[in-house]
């Protein structure tokens, strides 16, 4: 027989032939476990295809507004007169990718760089003007966009211009909403492929995230934390559901937020983190146990990183044996977690 206040032999618990124990795998939180977990997380790499992309020179597209200068020929450059602003003399690319220019007629410009269009116009004007000096600039970028959704202050889209844009620059311009963002879940959707990036970890540890350039048509989605919670229950002053914001929330931060284990009723040995509860039909849940009476407990709790949908349970002193504890805890945690998530969804609607 076991009770949470006694020493638990992990091998013996796992080997017991009971319905309750077949639902879980008990793991002690130890320095070795934390070192292995940290090594795995530090080894997370950015997909090579994202790092391999290098932006090319800007290519003109439909609805871009061009300002075409032909030196010494103001009748071609500013046909509306000097008093008109540059925008009034802009040449807007039609939806079919063409524009009209005096003397040379319709020109297909979509997909061409500014230098390529400059050469085309100069070569065609040479039939009418001796050695024409032509310059082409984009004064309104309307054809190519980067899209933002999720927990950004400035969601929507941003036009792509001739300047190379990195992922970090784009996120900075869109501005993360710290209250609603799940920083561990930044998604970059490119050419139908979704790349998931742990933005928090990649920006707080050495990484090459600054080498990622965005491509026209890319979509950036910062995950919301409204559906990703950490549920805290048991012998704590303030049980409930906490939003999951970053990949570096630790067990000590969670316990500190809810007031810590109750000094009157909590068992110091019975601090559990239950992981994988939302997939019990297919896999075992993992129950991590922290011996909070150990001198090293604070260090271990401060290094144990939480994951979305984790359940933290602080047991009462002198509770029942392990099998009964598990059979009562898992259904209760499932009900409370589902209720918290449903409440958030109703409130959001």
Question: How would you describe the overall organization of this protein?
Answer:
The two termini are 48 Å apart. 27% of the residues lie in helices and 26% in strands. It has 349 residues and is of the alpha+beta class. It contains 10 helices and 16 strands. The relative contact order is 0.15. Mean pLDDT is 81; it is low at 1-20. The longest helix is centred in the C-terminal third of the chain and has 27 residues, at 322-348. The protein has helices at 10-15, 31-42, 48-52, 74-77, 114-125, 167-174, 199-204, 251-257, 297-303, 322-348, and strands at residues 24-28, 65-70, 91-92, 98-101, 105-108, 134-140, 145-150, 156-159, 181-190, 193-197, 219-224, 229-234, 240-243, 266-275, 285-290, 311-316. Keywords: Cell outer membrane, Ion transport, Lipoprotein, Membrane, Palmitate, Polysaccharide transport, Porin, Signal, Sugar transport, Transmembrane, Transmembrane beta strand, Transport. Residues 317-345 form the Outer-membrane lipoprotein Wza C-terminal domain. Its main location: membrane.
């Amino acid at each position: 027989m076991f009770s949470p206040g006694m020493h638990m032999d992990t091998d013996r618990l796992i080997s017991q032939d009971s319905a309750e124990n077949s639902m879980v795998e008990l793991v002690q939180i130890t320095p070795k476990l934390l070192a292995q977990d940290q090594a795995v997380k530090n080894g997370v790499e950015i997909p090579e295809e994202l790092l391999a992309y290098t932006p090319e020179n800007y290519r003109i597209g439909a609805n871009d507004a061009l300002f075409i200068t032909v030196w010494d020929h103001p009748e071609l450059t500013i046909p509306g007169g000097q008093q008109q602003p540059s925008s009034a003399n802009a040449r807007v690319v039609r939806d079919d990718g063409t524009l009209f220019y005096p003397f040379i007629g319709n020109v297909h410009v979509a997909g061409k760089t500014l230098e390529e269009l400059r050469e085309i116009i100069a070569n065609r004007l040479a039939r009418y003007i001796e050695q024409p000096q032509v310059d082409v600039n984009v004064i309104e970028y309307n054809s190519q966009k980067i899209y933002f959704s999720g927990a950004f202050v400035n969601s929507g889209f941003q036009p792509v211009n001739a300047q190379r844009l990195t992922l970090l620059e784009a996120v900075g311009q869109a501005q993360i909403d710290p209250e609603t963002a799940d920083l561990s879940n930044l998604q970059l959707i490119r050419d139908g492929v979704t790349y998931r990036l742990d933005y928090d970890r990649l920006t707080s540890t050495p990484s090459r995230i600054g080498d990622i350039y965005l491509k026209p048509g890319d979509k950036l989605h910062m995950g919301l934390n409204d559906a990703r919670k950490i549920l805290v229950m048991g012998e704590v002053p303030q049980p409930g559901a906490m939003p999951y914001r970053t990949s570096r929330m630790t067990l000590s931060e969670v316990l500190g937020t809810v007031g810590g284990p109750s000094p009157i009723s909590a068992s110091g040995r019975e601090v559990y983190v239950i992981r994988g509860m939302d997939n019990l039909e297919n896999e075992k849940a993992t129950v991590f146990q922290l011996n909070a009476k150990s001198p090293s407990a604070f260090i271990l709790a401060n290094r144990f990183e939480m994951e979305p949908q984790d359940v933290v349970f602080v047991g009462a002193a002198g509770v029942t044996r392990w099998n009964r504890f598990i059979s009562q805890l898992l259904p209760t945690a499932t009900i409370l977690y589902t209720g918290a998530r449903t409440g958030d969804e109703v409130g959001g609607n």
